[in-house]
Amino acid sequence: MLLLDDDRLFERCFFLRDHGRRADGPMYYNFEVTYKYMPFNVQAALGYAQFQRIDKLVGKKREQLDMYKEKLKDIKDIQFNPEPPGGVNGAWITGLVFGKSHKMTKLDAMEKLNKLGLPARPFFYPLSSLPAYPGFREKYEPLNPVAYDISARGINLPGAANLTEEQIDRFCNGIKIILGYK
Fold first, then answer.
1. CB within 10 Å: which end of the chain, N or C, has fewer?
2. Do 123 and 92 belong together in one domain?
3. pTM (2 d.p.)
4. Which helix (H) or strand (E) holds 172?
């Protein structure tokens, strides 16, 4: 679902949503290969309902990110979601990247946290590293060293809408344990 204030961008999105057809073109005539990314009516209704609560939903996610940052502020050489200059991070998911001084890979961190009963998810993989894109890794890894580097050292922290501060405390304590801060 998109919310736009740019007429040109809206027209382009509408074109892509409609299989690359134009209103002024022949019927069933595709000018580009595209896909019909149009939600069903129930999906659209759910999306609209979420837009009506967007401030509350994003506020909750930002609150969780801020709690993680505050509770782990004494740990050196870790990084959370960056806040872009002039922008607002929606904090859809809280990512944590371990600095190189910790010698901690995402797989090591996930294994250690799982042993403590704390499930963690891996940081996202660079698209060019995925099997769906054969041959891309060799070409793009040298061009995107940061993506490959932080992917290997990052995890995504729990962030369910009903996550409590006590659960965040427990997870933060687990991170402190695996990094030797407890």
1. C
2. yes
3. 0.80
4. helix 165-178
Length of the chain: 182
DSSP 103-151: ---HHHHHHHHHHTT---EEPPPPGGGSTTSTTHHHHHTTT-HHHHHHH
Residue 76 CA to residue 98 CA, distance in Å, equals: 9
Question: What domain range is 22 assigned to?
Answer: 7-50
CA distance 33 to 114: 44
Element (H, E) at 59: helix 54-71
In terms of Cα–Cα distance, which of 65, 49, 61 is closest to 92?
Answer: 61
Task: Read off the DSSP letter of residue 91.
Answer: -
Q: What are phi and psi of 157, to 5 degrees?
A: -90, 155
Examine the domain organization and report whether 17 and 93 are in the same domain: no
Rg for the chain, CA atoms, rounded: 21
Per-residue pLDDT of 122-177, as tens digits, reads 999 999 999 999 999 999 999 999 999 999 999 999 999 899 999 999 999 999 99
* Number of structural domains found in the chain: 2
Other CB atoms within 10 A of residue 79 CB: 13
